[in-house]
What we know:
Blueprint: H1 9-25, H2 36-55, H3 60-86, H4 92-116
Helix pairs in contact: 1-2, 1-4, 2-3, 3-4
Amino acid sequence: xxxxxxxxxxxxxxxxxxxxxxxxxxxxxxxxxxxxxxxxxxxxxxxxxxxxxxxxxxxxxxxxxxxxxxxxxxxxxxxxxxxxxxxxxxxxxxxxxxxxxxxxxxxxxxxxxxxxxxxxxx
Length: 122
């Protein structure tokens, strides 16, 4: 049976994270709708999107390239969450929980990058 990106736990966790970002940003001030809300949502969505796109590429090196892009989006979201915390748009407890989720996703992406890196299979 062929595995799809939907079978990847890191993709599943990143999809859950996207839902959490949408829930969080729905409570941001209205004047942030086209600022931080849009940036946070777009960056969060790019994490599972890059995993999905990369998984269907023909080579492991292509997949790794997309995983690295997803990991970059994790750092972008982390920065935006930290900004949200500083501005008081997000509570400490919720922010800490989301940052911990991001750390798990980032570690999983790094592990997958290591496992799929072509140099590892030489």
